[in-house]
Backbone:
RNA sequence: GGAGGCGUGGCAGAGCGGUCGAAUGCAGCAACCUGCUAAGUUGUUGACUGGGAAACCGGUCCGAAGGUUCGAAUCCUUCCGCCUCCGCCA
């Protein structure tokens, strides 16, 4: 949610954001009107309270009785206004950063850099679903019978590779040397304080998800009505509220977490899209960064997260391109979104594997996570979240980029210590 | 799932219908004092919010939301969280 004061003072900017993020139909005029009304209503409530306190001091029962009713009425008025106002405010998207390209959809995204040589195969590279099927390491058929579409069994060395990726990522994000190296390679100068590893809950109160501005569209969430909880769609969803209703002293920032969790997505509205293989699953594992910084450090923090993503990808030797996402394609709470797309030779295209979201104080405002400055002032902290690995999609990239003519797949060197072998073999049952 | 207890300021911990935004201790801040080992004395110190240049004045906040009452931190209801015991369980 944006700050009301900010909206008042920057109406044109807010209007442009609504327009460019394709969020038309928000009655900003009405919101500003309501803000005025709310101010008046609040004044009325305060005045009645003042009189009420006086009546109490004088033990004036008669006036007390009268004021009690008046207060109730005044509070109702206030609540009604407040409710309508908030209902509009929460629909207003965050303001895109100055360097965000304006565009209607993914066609407006910009490639900001590319890395890696696309490998020359001496044969026709297969798509991961064929590699997986032939090696017996991806079993979609049985999963469909047992669980439905968009679920798979990962088996054998592919299962091992999954845990290797997790280990590798956790090691990088907690090692001072790797963090410093990633920052240096990207030409960044900042505090490279290590990430705290976390295994977060994968279910959360719908109300908190709402404060993260990630509940809508609710159709995308698995919602358990009886318990009023949702499955997370990313570790970010439970890492972000890790400091809700807290005020953090500025010298404690930045605070960085790296979380491993399973993510759940209903994929409503994507019927028929990416149905082959494991690119788009209802359930997948992900390693996610989340950080809390002083407002002035927020943008650099995102650059750092992207630097770490790239550092990991280079260690794995996977060719990628970094995309600056345009207004029409970026997330609702995002100020700037940077994605990484990885080269998938079996599909002869780049596919999205990472995302880095700089949300500024947008989530922190409703989460009530604040930073207390040494001056004594407090304001919402700025938050960043970013993928380290969407495990499934990274597995795809490895399978397709490291495949051999004989159908086997070479294990990237960086992962060998955890896989325990150099080549992924066929599963024999 | 059953029984009981608890939730107060940065922390500890009183208060249990009006004199309570809340004793006291610790921590913090300021001044004074002092050669002695996390010393003493005094004063001061909550958050949010409305008005004001400021001094200051007003309002809200005792886990959350409702309720009873002229009046609630104190009574009632629901919810959330924590603790103890029993049951069950990876």
Residues:
């Amino acid at each position: 949610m944006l700050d009301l004061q900010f909206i008042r003072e920057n109406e044109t900017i807010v209007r442009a954001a609504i327009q460019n993020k394709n969020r038309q139909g928000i009655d900003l005029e009405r919101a500003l009107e309501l803000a005025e009304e709310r101010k008046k209503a609040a004044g009325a409530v305060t005045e009645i309270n003042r009189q009420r306190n006086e009546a109490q001091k004088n033990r004036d029962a008669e006036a007390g009785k009268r004021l009690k009713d008046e207060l109730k009425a005044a509070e109702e008025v206030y609540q009604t206004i407040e409710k309508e106002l908030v209902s509009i405010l929460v629909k207003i998207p965050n303001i895109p950063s100055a360097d965000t390209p304006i565009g209607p959809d993914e066609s407006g995204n910009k490639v900001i850099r590319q890395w890696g040589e696309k490998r020359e195969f001496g044969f026709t590279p297969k798509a991961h679903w064929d590699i997986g099927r032939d090696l017996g390491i991806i079993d979609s058929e049985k999963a469909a019978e047992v669980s439905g579409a968009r679920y798979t069994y990962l088996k054998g060395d592919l299962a091992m590779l999954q845990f290797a990726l997790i280990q590798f990522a956790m090691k990088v994000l907690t090692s001072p040397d790797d963090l410093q190296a990633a920052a240096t390679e990207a030409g960044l100068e900042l505090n490279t304080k290590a990430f705290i590893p976390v295994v977060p809950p994968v279910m959360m109160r719908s109300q908190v998800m709402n404060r993260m501005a990630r509940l809508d569209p609710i159709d995308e969430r698995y919602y358990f009505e009886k318990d009023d909880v949702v499955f997370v769609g990313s570790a970010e969803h439970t890492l972000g509220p890790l400091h809700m209703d807290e005020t953090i002293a500025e010298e404690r920032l930045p605070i960085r977490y790296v979380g491993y969790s399973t993510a759940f997505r209903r994929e409503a509205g994507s019927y028929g899209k990416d149905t082959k293989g494991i690119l788009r699953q209802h359930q997948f594992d992900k390693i996610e960064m989340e950080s809390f910084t002083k407002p002035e450090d927020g943008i650099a923090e995102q650059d750092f997260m992207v630097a770490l993503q790239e550092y990991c990808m280079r260690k794995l030797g996977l060719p990628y391109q970094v995309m600056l996402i345009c207004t029409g394609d970026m997330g609702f709470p995002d100020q700037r979104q940077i994605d990484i797309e990885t080269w998938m030779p079996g599909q002869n295209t780049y596919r999205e594997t990472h995302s880095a979201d700089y949300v500024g104080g947008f989530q922190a405002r409703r989460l009530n996570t604040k930073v207390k400055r040494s001056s004594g002032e407090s304001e919402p902290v700025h938050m960043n979240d970013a993928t380290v690995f969407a495990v499934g999609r990274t597995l795809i990239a490895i399978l397709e980029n490291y495949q051999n003519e004989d159908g086997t797949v070479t294990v990237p060197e960086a992962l060998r210590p955890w896989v325990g072998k150099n080549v992924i073999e066929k599963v024999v049952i």
